[in-house]
Amino acid sequence: MIMKKALVCGAGGFIGGHLVNRLKSEGYWVRGVDIKENEYGNTNSDEFVLGDLRDVNLVKQVVTSDLDEIYQLAADMGGAGFVFTGDNDADIMHNSALCNLNVLEEMKRKGVKNVFYSSSACMYPEYNQMDPDNPKCSEDSAYPAAPDSEYGWEKLFSERLYLTYNRNHGFNSKIGRFHNIFGPQGTWKGGREKAPAAICRKVAMAQNGDVIEVWGDGTQTRSFLIVDECVDGIRRLMESDFAGPVNIGSEEMISIQNFTRLVMDISGKDLSIKNIEGPTGVKGRNSDNKLIKEKLGWAPSIPLRNGVEKTYNWILDQIKVTENV
């Protein structure tokens, strides 16, 4: 059997590190590239290149003609505190778009056709996500376009970019729209962490009787997907004959207030919640899995609590090591 070769762009990141492990378990030879190394040592690629995909010369080095597949997860991103303040909009749009433009053009030059692009549920229109109890996030609801952030606009642009390379250059681009991926080895402090990790950190560091601060009124709803199922969805999409875009997310919707209560229950601590002002994004968002079930015969199914328990315990371990708690 001939060993397949893959490039994972963003291999130093959370999802990228887990994807490298999955590909290695399937017998792939893997080259990883990222602007940073994985902070938790999750770098099991056969070759890891430390570099910036905004640099054309670096892209020429890592996108080689012998590659069977490329997984483009590299992006300038973070949680609500990074994406929704407006302070980072120019960097988010410029940096992420440039990575995609460089990778696609070098793929065209080298004759590499198979690529996965990680889009985001942030590209869905804000007007369909105003009701926290009934958000509309089916794939066909993307237009008329009206994302609530520049991060979402860039994702929407890049989706169209990949699909044009399919039409004009015979590419086999696959697009997955991620819905709030979380789990062990994800960013959990520093300002770019997402809500699940931030709440797990706050609860893990709290003492009985403490107050946990939650941004907004807590009624905003989301669904959260454990990273193992995200990676499973990526691989199933790549092995299919369906291009997407398709949601890769859980349908188990929960309010941020109730998510916080879930983490508090897992911790066994007696804590209370205080709602404070802060960036919250849309009022409601939940994955619609009708299309992925139809096209792939599969959809995420791991209960939220299972993933939260796994993530909370991992973050608790990190705090014990780094914060001397």
UniProtKB/TrEMBL annotation:
Residues 6-249 form the NAD-dependent epimerase/dehydratase domain. It comes from the Bacteria. SUPFAM superfamilies: NAD(P)-binding Rossmann-fold domains. Keywords: NAD. The keyword NAD applies. PANTHER family: EPIMERASE-RELATED. This is Nucleoside-diphosphate-sugar epimerase.
